[in-house]
Amino acid sequence: MEYITNNFLGIAVLVGIVNGLVLRKKILMISSGNEGFDIDPEKKLIKGIFGSLTIPFALLQIIQLLSGYKSAFYIFFKDYTNPFYWAGVSVLVISWLLFLYWIFLKKGYLVLKQYNKAFNLPKSESGIKLFSLVVVLGGAVALFLV
């Protein structure tokens, strides 16, 4: 169990890569039966998933290794005097802000709407926007208030 907690973020990077490959396969299956289905958003979606999940986890793992924290959950330790703690928190906050920027300003909700079957997301645009806000706010509450 200690191995998992120490290397959780590295494991998450590997899982993110596998998820990207599985997601790509699901999307290709969804798009193959639909004429007029725009495949270009698929590339944006895979890049978005990789960029919003895998890269932040990789950065958090690097920060953990550099800082000497024994657990991947160091971002919940409230170690306010350690600059590595703040680097980890900054990675999370920046990734959340970039995700919301993509959803609301770059109309990422339209891409997610097109592939909602691959994610089991709400079918409506407003449902996807609300779900995105809830996910980010849930992460913020867990990080800052718990």
Largest sheet: none
Order of helices and strands: HHHHHHH
Shape: globular
Distance between the termini: 23 Å
- List unreliable stretches of 5+ residues: none
Pairing-aware structural class of the strands and helices?
A: mainly alpha
> What is the helix content?
over 70%
Extended strand count? 0
Question: Which radius of gyration do the C-alpha atoms yield?
Answer: 17 Å
Percentage of residues in strands: under 5%
- The tally of domains stands at 1
Quaternary structure of the protein: single chain
Please work out how many helical segments DSSP would assign: 7
What can be said about this structure in brief?
The chain has 146 residues and is mainly alpha-helical. The protein has helices spanning 2-6, 8-32, 40-67, 83-105, 108-114, 116-119, 125-144.
Question: Which features characterize this protein?
Answer:
mainly alpha; 146 residues
Task: Give an overview in words.
- The protein is mainly α and 146 residues long.
- 77% of the residues lie in helices and 0% in strands.
- The longest helix has 28 residues.
- It is globular.
Strand and helix layout:
Elements (H helix, E strand, L loop, with lengths): L1 H5 L1 H25 L7 H28 L15 H23 L2 H7 L1 H4 L5 H20 L2
